[in-house]
Design a protein that fits this description.
By secondary structure, this protein is mostly helical. Helix content is 71%, strand content 0%. The chain is globular and about 75 Å long.
Length: 348
């Protein structure tokens, strides 16, 4: 039936369908206030304004010959605002590396334990139950890479703070350039490891999600055949009809199916979260590869990365983090799949 087709829509690698729990209504002011109270939320809201100004500066530079008015003053205003917003974000990052340092100190004992032959059973856990995350890399290698990623984040945070303090004259200004180069390289190093880990986790989760999806489809087919068997059994054949209906109660079957559907919704939601995390990291790498001390585009192509491209990917990265930190709906409705299942039950 049409309802059953919509209940388990066609699979897609990005995991766009089945996002749960839903986000709060963006037209309401309350979730935006909650977002702005988070450090990451304020940072990314500032980043959106920063890269919007950067995009406008590039636009005015590109259309210098086409404008009928003098836009130098407007361009200068946007450029100044962009620079100041960039400095403001550095203020928001002061001391932020402590969070990464704490995560690093918590992870190092796991690495030492595994080096001594211990096994961490939580590494391959997905969400409990019968489904285990079949990781494409060993737990020990994953721990080593995670420690390397955190080391990069700590190095970036410390060097970035030093660069800011040198820029405002709190410490020797000669430290600013060297600290900025170290920060950029640490950030690139951490992002490369993060991209690899996210990609491997995405691959592992696809296997788990496909298994859950197959199980749910089989339950749906089973219930459909059961309804058909009941409908074609003659009402006069009470004994035969009793054998069909008493094998498992309809109520128990419906509970099992609802649990399976909810599990599938959560698996697809995680797939979507992993997918946008990979997109964000790729956008960040495009920006980082153009920073001072790396200059990947200059070394390969002989010129800097396209300014318009950097502005767009910077905005995409910022919007993804805003989405990730945007508050969830405090009173979410049931997932659409469960609602559809209830409609199917009502048609019996």
């Amino acid at each position: 039936s049409r309802g059953e087709v919509e209940l388990i829509p066609n699979n897609n690698w990005f995991g766009w369908s089945g996002i749960y729990p839903p986000k709060a209504n963006p037209h309401s002011l309350t979730p935006w206030i909650q977002l702005s109270l988070k450090l990451d939320g304020r940072d990314k809201l500032t980043k959106v304004m920063q890269y919007t100004c950067r995009l406008l500066v590039w636009y005015y530079d590109r259309t210098d010959q086409e404008r009928t008015f003098d836009g130098d003053a407007v361009k200068t205003a946007y450029k100044t605002l962009q620079t100041n917003l960039s400095e403001a974000r550095k203020v928001l990052r002061l001391g932020k590396f402590i969070k990464d340092y704490k995560a690093l100190t918590n992870k190092i004992p796991d690495m030492i334990y595994q080096m001594c032959g211990g096994k961490n059973g939580s590494e391959n856990d997905d969400s409990g139950g019968d489904n285990r995350q079949r990781s494409t890399i060993s737990p020990f290698i994953k721990t080593i890479l995670t420690v390397g990623k955190l080391l990069g984040l700590v190095g970036y945070g410390i060097a970035d703070n030093i660069a800011y303090l040198a820029g405002v004259g709190f410490i020797l200004r000669s430290y600013k350039k060297r600290a900025s180069i170290v920060a950029n390289r640490c950030e690139l190093f951490s992002s490369l490891i993060g991209l690899f880990l996210s990609w491997k986790e995405w691959q592992s989760h696809i296997t788990i999600k496909d298994s859950i999806e197959q199980t749910t489809r089989e339950l749906l087919v089973s219930m459909k055949h059961r309804r058909q068997a009941i409908s074609i059994t003659p009402s006069s054949s009470k004994e035969l009809r009793s054998n069909v209906t008493d094998e498992h109660s309809d109520h128990e079957k419906q509970i099992v199916l609802r649990q399976a559907i909810l599990k599938l919704v959560k698996a697809r939601s995680k797939q979507f979260a992993l997918s946008i995390a990979i997109v964000k990291t790729c956008c960040d790498l495009i920006i980082f590869s153009n920073n001072t001390g790396i200059d990947l585009h200059t070394k390969i192509r002989g010129k800097k990365c396209h300014e318009g491209l950097q502005s767009v990917v910077g905005l995409i990265s910022a919007f993804i983090v805003l989405y990730q930190n945007f508050p969830n709906d405090t009173t979410p409705a049931e997932p659409g799949y469960l609602l559809e299942q209830r409609l199917l039950e009502a048609r019996k």
